[in-house]
Design goal:
By secondary structure, the protein is of the alpha+beta class. It is about 60% helix and about 15% strand. The chain has 29 helices and 19 strands. The strands form five sheets. The chain has an eight-stranded antiparallel sheet.
Length: about 850
């Protein structure tokens, strides 16, 4: 009889499930109109009822319109001031503020991305320092002036690129990894963030505008005497000139129970040190309970700070941030431990923003916010609905398959999958992750792949039952043998995700967060929860058998005998992929990377985004991006239709430029749009050089991590084979995708990274069986061991691939056009990944050991 403890394990499992279930409340977005009714003074008033009725009529005419857009449009059309209808609320100035408030109250616990819930766009103007703007005019020829201007323009472009990466770091400090940041002309940056509440917008605005220029400046040796003279002159109305090279600065000193005191300092204009070498900064409280910011320098900064505090011991050192004096402590002794602190009067939010800004780095230029737009979701309501229903159908298909194939054990797997969904959603909410539509698809795919762990366990249990062992003995042995395989497969992928999370940035880091969550929850449900359920059933249930369907009987296919044919196929596919990529060139790269021309129009009546995209595609504007937005800085209706197209020679050569051409096309096809006015500007790619370098470094280090871990757990030959298989899969999947006249975009990159995880998992399962059989089958040749291992895991390989393909096919045909590219790449990847684990990775291991060549006569 099974004597493993059950009650404590159930208590632990239920507590974990309850905690994560509580985190996702509310799981669903509340009904927008009901939420609106909850914030108005009188939900039964005629004005409110009419407004909601008109909004629903607008939605009935165009199913792509979200309720928030419909309500705003209805209010604007009838001249309704929403502020007058709602209960008294702070910081509400116009209709858009009310819509943002309702969006926030209606939102679920999980932050939704720009595609699902819209957000805010900040148009940021980069203002260079006066020194950067000056061009010496005297004694310069025209050619020299042009050269100087060109040099300054290139320098400013570098400043702009650096500012983009600093802004990206600041967004990541707020746990926002899915922001969209791109150059907009020479002196502007477009920053789009998936936040909708006014509080979040204001907080981000403060963080964005902060230059974070930290300066350590000496205070005049005779400061007290100068301050007395300055105050006396000030009291008598006389002008007091500070010593040459100094300026007068002041700060407020405050202690609990005492009045604040204004202190004046004569601070040297030239600094002795900057905050360039800060490695960490965080807020804490002093002995009076007042907030202060602790600074940690890197080795270079610590050395410099030690020199400064040694040389100027006994002098006051002013700490100036963005031109504001925070404190001026006296240097009592040399500080060589690489730390400093900023004291002053901070709010919690201000202290955190300053800390985050200092860590991310100071902006090389001043930023002015020239415009703020509320952006509508980039996907129409139909696309979102299709994606969600496709996900539900896909999960249902997987669950039905598991129940049909594994019967009673399938019930255990389905319960585990249900719990897995709760844990994943709860973790996303707890870690403030942003969920996008490709993210939903990826999450569903991760859950579909989690079936693999259950399949591994059940197939191991089946093997033990086939040896005529008892049920409990078979369960114990099955879990024991499957545990190592599952652990190796998941830990390899988890280490990869952690490296991507630490060294990556932007979408790379966001992907790694979601992947890590999926791995952790899958291991908990597969190794802990399902075992707990089996132990409970064996203790209290009456059955003694565990019946399952059987896909394949014992196979004995000579897979390695086909290694030469497989090698020929792989080399041919890789060569074709390289030729296709070289032939396509930049045309294979999407707007996310290349940028393009951004065109905005004023419009009268909305037309669904997908409808506009389809018409522009037919007109030759390939894969445009279409979205609606409205300015929050303007009191009048300032709604815009924004279209982003690639810079193509044949397009730009059209008479009147793309703005006029697109305006004519859309007005002719959709007269209700009534496009007019507008502007046209160049918009850079979302992926800058620094982003690319960091992403490349993260992926390179992840591959090194894979080599180290697999070498440690298996041997170096297995690690090399795994990497070759991964590269093989990514190259071929990319080549096939581009061959079908498609473009590489950020969702496609996410799909390729998912392929790496899937392929690695598949390969590790086969390798684990080879390692096991190498110890068990001492009399067999290496070729026989590998063939036998592949055959033994073939049933599991096919089952996992089939369930994953079922999910992908449902998502592809019913998920809508928005996720088609992501899903299509995954479809290719699953097929190629399954092929490579059998016909690429395994033969490489055998060739490395030189076993096949030594026994070629046996082939």
């Amino acid at each position: 009889m099974n004597k493993r403890p059950v009650f404590f394990r159930w208590f632990f499992a239920l507590v974990v499930i309850a905690v994560f279930a509580f985190s996702i409340h509310p799981l669903y977005q509340r009904d927008f109109y009901k939420t609106f009714e909850s914030v108005v003074k009188d939900p039964e008033s005629t004005a409110v009822k009419k407004l909601i009725t008109n909004a629903k009529e607008l939605q009935a005419k165009d199913s792509s319109i979200f309720p928030s857009m419909a309500l705003l449009a209805a209010a604007q059309q009838d001249g309704v001031v929403l502020k007058d209808l709602i209960k008294p609320t702070k910081d509400i100035s116009d209709n858009r503020d009310v819509i943002s408030l309702v969006r926030k109250k209606a939102s679920s616990s999980i932050r939704l991305g720009l595609d699902l819930n819209g957000g805010v766009e900040f148009m940021l103007e980069l203002i260079p320092d006066k020194k950067q703007e000056k061009v010496v005019q005297k004694n310069l020829s025209d050619a020299e002036k042009q050269a100087r201007l060109a040099s300054q323009k290139e320098q400013f472009k570098n400043f702009r690129d650096l500012a983009i990466e600093i802004l990206r770091s600041r967004m990541e400090s707020q746990q926002i990894f899915e922001s969209e940041i791109s150059p907009a002309g020479d002196k502007f940056i477009s920053l789009r963030v998936p936040v909708v509440s006014k509080d979040e917008k204001v907080q981000l605005l403060k963080l964005i505008e902060m230059s974070a220029k930290l300066r350590f400046c000496l205070v005049h040796e005779n400061n007290e005497r100068l301050v007395k003279q300055y105050l006396a002159a000030k009291a008598s109305g006389k002008k007091f000139l500070p010593p040459v090279g100094y300026r007068v600065m002041s700060n407020e000193e405050f202690k609990p129970g005492e009045k604040s005191v204004t202190r004046y300092y004569f601070v040297k204009r030239k600094h002795v040190m900057t905050g360039k070498n800060i490695s960490d900064a965080f807020p804490t409280k002093d002995s009076f309970g007042q907030l202060k910011i602790i600074l940690r320098f890197n080795s270079t900064g610590a050395k410099r700070f030690g020199v400064v505090t040694t040389e100027y011991k006994g002098r006051a050192l002013a700490i100036v941030l963005d031109g504001k004096l925070y404190s001026a402590p006296v240097i009592r002794s040399a500080i060589t431990d690489g730390s400093a602190e900023i004291s002053g009067s901070f709010s919690n939010e201000e202290a955190k923003n300053i800390s985050d800004a200092l860590v991310s780095g100071s902006l090389p230029v001043r930023i002015a916010v020239s415009a703020i737009f509320d952006t509508d979701p980039t996907l129409g309501a139909d696309n979102v609905t299709n994606g969600i229903w496709a996900g539900i159908i896909a999960l249902s298909v997987v669950m039905v398959f598991m129940l049909t194939y594994y019967l009673r054990a399938g019930v255990v797997a389905v319960i585990a999958l249900g719990v897995n969904i709760v844990l994943v959603l709860g973790a996303l909410a707890a870690f403030s992750a942003t969920l996008t539509l490709p993210g939903i698809a990826g999450m569903i795919l991760t859950i579909g792949m989690a079936v693999d762990a259950n399949v591994l366990i059940f197939e191991r249990i089946r093997e033990e039952l086939n040896k005529n062992k008892g049920l409990q003995n078979s369960i114990d042995t099955g879990y024991s043998k499957a545990f190592i395989t599952i652990l190796d497969a998941n830990l390899t992928t988890l280490f990869t995700a952690l490296i991507l999370m630490y060294f990556g940035t932007g979408a790379i880091k966001g992907f790694a967060v979601t992947l890590s969550i999926g791995i952790a929850t899958s291991m908990f449900t597969a190794l802990f929860l399902t075992r707990l359920m089996f132990d409970s059933m064996s203790r209290w249930a009456s059955f003694k058998k565990l019946t399952m369907c059987h896909l394949l009987s014992h196979t004995s296919i000579n897979f390695l005998g086909k290694r030469k044919l497989a090698a020929l196929i792989s080399i041919s596919l890789i060569a074709c992929s390289f030729v296709i990529v070289a032939t396509k060139g930049e045309k294979a790269i999407g707007i996310d990377f290349t940028g393009g021309t951004q065109i905005t129009f004023d419009y009268s009546q909305r037309v669904a985004e997908d409808t506009i995209k389809k018409e522009l595609n037919n007109a030759g504007y390939k894969n445009p991006k279409v979205t609606y937005k409205s300015s929050t800085l303007s009191q009048k209706d300032n709604s815009k239709l924004e279209i982003l197209i690639r810079d193509e020679v044949e397009i730009s050569s059209k008479k009147g430029g793309p703005k006029d051409s697109i305006g004519k096309i859309l007005n002719a096809k959709f007269p209700e749009l009534k496009l007019k006015g507008g502007s046209e500007s160049s918009l850079g790619g979302l992926i800058g050089k620094t982003f690319r370098d960091q992403a490349a470094l993260a992926i390179f280090l992840a591959l090194i991590g894979i080599v180290i871990y697999i070498s440690f757990r298996f041997e170096f030959a297995y690690a090399v084979a795994s990497i070759i298989a991964l590269v093989h899969d990514v190259i071929i999947a990319t080549g096939i995708y581009i061959m079908l006249d498609k473009e590489i975009s950020l969702p496609v990159i996410a799909a390729l990274m998912t392929i790496i995880g899937y392929s690695l998992n598949d390969t590790i399962v086969v390798f684990d069986r080879i390692r096991e059989n190498t110890n068990l089958l001492k009399g067999d040749t290496y070729k026989e061991i590998i063939n036998k291992s592949i055959n033994q895991t073939l049933s599991r390989t096919i089952l996992t691939s089939v369930t994953t393909l079922l999910v992908l096919l449902v998502l592809y045909f019913f998920g809508g056009i928005a996720i088609n590219d992501f899903v299509f790449v995954m479809l290719i990847g699953v097929i190629i990944g399954t092929y490579s684990s059998i016909f690429v990775a395994s033969p490489i291991v055998a060739i490395w050991h030189k076993k096949i060549g030594a026994r070629s006569k046996e082939a």
